[in-house]
Amino acid sequence: MCIQNEHLDIIGIAETHLTGKNEIRINGYKWFGHNRTELHERAKKGSGGVGFLVRDDIASRYNIEILDKSVEGILWVHVQQSDGRDCFRACVCYLPPTGTTRNIDANDFYDSLLSQVHVYGNESIFFLCGDFNSRCGDMDDYIAGVDTIPERNVVDFKRNAHGELLCEYLINSNCCILNGRKGVKNNYTYISQLGSSVVDYCLIPYELLDIFEQCDVITMSELIEKHDIFEYVDPLVSKPDHSMLLWNVKVEKCVSEASNDNGNKSEYNKFNLKNIPNSFLADHLRDIEELILSLELNNVNQNNLDIVYQNFVNLLKNEMLEKMDYKVIKVSLGLNNKKRRMKKPWWSDHLTILWNDVCAIEKEMLKSKSDTRKRQCRQEFICKRKLFDRETQRSKRRYWRDQLNEIDNLESTNQTEFWKKDRTGRSRRREKESYTDVCATTGWKYFT
Q1: Residues 32, 56: contact at Cβ < 8 Å?
Q2: Domain region containing 279
Q3: Could you say which of 86, 152, 208, 381 is the most buried, measured as most Cβ atoms within 10 Å of its Cβ?
Q4: Around 141, how many Cα atoms within 13 Å sit in the side-chain half-sphere?
Q5: In terms of domains, do 146 and 244 share one?
Q6: Any idea what the CATH number is for the domain that residue 248 is in?
Q7: C-beta of residue 74 within 8 angstroms of C-beta of residue 95
Q8: DSSP per residue over 344-398, as a string?
Q9: Which carries the bigger pLDDT value, residue 285 or residue 415?
Q10: What is the pTM of this model?
């Protein structure tokens, strides 16, 4: 829901945890993935994995193909225009942190990435993004006195070994970190009860810094609050601890710019441009001549040009509606016409208040400049988050207890009502929730 509401064109995802040929399926998007092939023999689920989600209208108008997935945790895709001209290349990466069971040499990882940049980034727009588990602190990602680029707004001043390797890689590849250089919302990219850090980046070439704009970091709490979806969040599933990085890149004939006018509308007209009648504009030749004369006779300034242009556009629109075949395309802000899900039935105003408290203390923790106050906020954040999780579980159990009591009290002759309630139970089982018998002292059955 967040992805669709944000109307994103291309989405890079790290740590997909997919196995085999599994893929992420979201309505309105096409998946290009690179799953981890070698897993531990005792692994119960997948790990690592990277990929891109590309919006369907872009995937249909542009030629998109996987360029390279020879290195684990690195995936390159190539976006070309329909006539074969190069548009840009994108890379998503995942480098596991040190001390994990997945022993990947960070030096080899960055050496491979450097070689690929020299091959695929030559004379082409490109960017890299992902989870590098590299804390750069305030280290320079460029050669001071040689490279002239804006200073980076640093929020995480701690460093690690991966961060030093990343800065060395950036200097060798003539790239820099986009986080903190563009946009107004710079924040930690990893936030959990264990702490906060900046480990996710968008990396771009120095010379292309001007075409990248508005790079913002949005935390998961802000994202949930922005789209008002905290009532849909399942407390049994952990909230993602990585933030979302958003940025714009200006490329030739970008589909986003062409489709922005329709992106926020509920419907628009799609004309059949292959069947333009011979009489098109035949009745308005005099009107067009008058528009041309108005430009020739009047003082040519920006205001007059805007007026004449708008009159001509209105003339074309009216003629197209009158003489050309078209159909009305109905769309929603989420890029699909499916009915929106109702909120969780067990949600309450009390849970809303608790969630707002969690978001408020998280924001205060991230903005605090004092280490002492930051530690205090972190402890408060942990306590409030635990309280929210506990109350959510209680509310959920109470709701399903009442539902099961209603089923037990239904008359046996009312089959319609019974199966209506039973469908609710079966839908919960599809979400991998099972019936559990409580101890005999209560005599209740509920969902856990």
Answers
A1: no
A2: 267-330
A3: 381
A4: 32
A5: yes
A6: 3.60.10.10
A7: no
A8: PTT--HHHHHHHHHHHHHHHHHHH---HHHHHHHHHHHHHHHHHHHHHHHHHHHH
A9: 285
A10: 0.61
Are 404 and 435 a contacting pair, CB within 8 Å? no
Same domain for 131 and 162, yes or no, is yes
- Burial of 279 by CB count in 10 Å (0-12 exposed, 13-18 middle, 19+ buried)? exposed
Which contacts qualify for 385-392: CB closer than 8 Å, 24 or more apart? 385/193, 385/358, 387/354, 388/235, 388/351, 388/354, 388/355, 388/357, 388/358, 389/235, 391/350, 391/351, 391/354, 392/235, 392/351
DSSP one-letter string for 182-208: SSS----SEEETTEEE--EEEEEEGGG
- Note the Cα 401 to chain centre separation in Å: 36
Residue 384 to residue 79: CA distance in whole angstroms: 45
Task: Fill in the amino acid letter for 112.
Answer: S
Quick check: 184 and 217 in contact, CB under 8 A?
Answer: no
Domain shared by 292 and 210, yes or no: no
Contact by Cβ (8 Å): 92, 129: yes
pLDDT tens track for 341-353:
445 777 888 888 8
Nearest to 40 by CA among 93, 96, 91, 92: 96
Tell me the pLDDT tens digit for each residue of 28-81. 899 999 998 877 666 667 788 999 999 998 899 899 999 999 999 999 999 988
3-state secondary structure of 119: helix
Which amino acid does the sequence have at 254? C
